[in-house]
Design a protein that fits this description.
It is a single chain. The chain has no helices and seven strands. The strands form two sheets. The chain has a four-stranded antiparallel sheet, with no helix packed on it. Strands 5-6-7 form a three-stranded antiparallel sheet, with no helix packed on it. Strand 6 and strand 7 form a beta hairpin. It is elongated and about 45 Å long. The site of zinc ion has 8 residues, from loops.
Length: 90
């Protein structure tokens, strides 16, 4: 039995964080998983129109499943920022 930990991720029977859509494992629960995902990083400027037009140095990072390309998480960050890691203990 798997435990849902976000809108797109579960912890599977082997204790790994996995994609809810296809079951692709991203690493052990309790560890950062974003480095195992496919990263898309684009400037936030213009991403959603005029309200974001002054965010020249802010990036929109999106993390996709390597197995099925489902969007797993997203965050905004400055280029030099490390990934924002949510550690979930179940
Ligand atoms: Zn997947």
């Amino acid at each position: 039995m798997s435990t849902r930990i976000s809108a797109s991720l579960v912890v599977n029977e082997q204790g790994e964080i996995a994609c809810m859509e296809c079951g692709h494992a991203l690493g052990p629960a309790g560890e950062p998983w974003k480095q195992a995902a496919r990263l898309s990083q684009t400037p936030l400027q213009g991403a959603a129109g005029e309200p974001y037009s002054n965010a020249a140095n802010v990036l929109l990072r999106r993390f996709f499943c390597p197995g099925c390309a489902a969007l797993l998480d997203s965050e905004t960050a400055l280029a030099e920022d490390p990934f924002l890691n949510d550690i979930v203990h179940v």
